[in-house]
Amino acid sequence: MKLKHSALLALALWLGVAVWVGAMILAKPRVQSRFDDEDASAQLAQLQANVQRNRQMLGVLEQLENPPANTGAALLAVEPLPAAGQDIGEGSFTGPAPRQLTLLLSTDGKRRALIDGQWVAPGALLADGSRVRAIGRDRVLLDAASGETVTVMMPPPFSAQATALPAKAGGRP
Questions:
Q1: CA triplet 126, 109, 113: central angle to 5 degrees?
Q2: Closest CA to 113 of 149, 143, 154, 146
Q3: Which pLDDT band, with edges at 50, 70 and 90, does 112 fall under?
Q4: Residues 6 or more apart from 96 whose CB is under 8 A from it?
Q5: d(Cα 114, Cα 38) in Å, to the nearest integer?
Q6: Are 112 and 105 in contact (CB under 8 A)?
Q7: Which of 2, 86, 93, 138 has its CA 20 to 30 A from that of 59?
Q8: Per-residue pLDDT tens over the stretch 95-105
């Protein structure tokens, strides 16, 4: 093959490739994002995930607020608190039974507390005549029937002594 024919063939191939690449670039569908900023789309995805998680939590709270009818079976075996004046073992108990604050909930700006097995909100009246003045993050303020203000604190979630594991026989835990 002559040099002139080889150059002509190379030029034709080069022009063919150039036209093909140009056609691919022009014919390529353009992908447009809904947002100009990639951070905005990431924030939208995060917001959608948060909304979904909040909806799930609201469903769980609905179930907690509307417990199923009591079938008579106890969920936990807990000894009842001693009544006023009842013997509690080593000494005698002469005052009123201590309050037991079990749970504090704060949803949609509304606070509720579980005191002595009774759900209460600010302004609610307890069985002994005490009125709930306020519900805080870790305490409930009560106006007792006698006129004094009583603070019921949330117990700590655990203590180091109660959760300590016994050492295994033979040394190391």
A1: 25
A2: 154
A3: very high
A4: 84, 128
A5: 46
A6: yes
A7: 138
A8: 566 788 888 88
**50, 78, 111, 142, 143 from 125: Cα distances, Å:** 36, 25, 15, 9, 10
Find out whether 125 and 157 touch, Cβ atoms under 8 Å.
no
The per-residue DSSP string of the chain comes to --HHHHHHHHHHHHHHHHHHHHHHHHHSPPP--SSSSHHHHHHHHHHHHHHHHHHHHHHHHHHHHSPPPP-S--SS--PPPPPTT-B-SSSB--SPPPP-EEEEEEETTEEEEEETTEEE-TT-B-TTS-EEEEE-SSEEEEE-TTS-EEEEEPPPS--HHHHPPPPPTTS--
**Average pLDDT, rounded, for the chain:** 76
The distance of Cα 116 from the centroid of its chain, to the nearest Å, equals 24
- What pTM, to 2 d.p., does this model score? 0.39
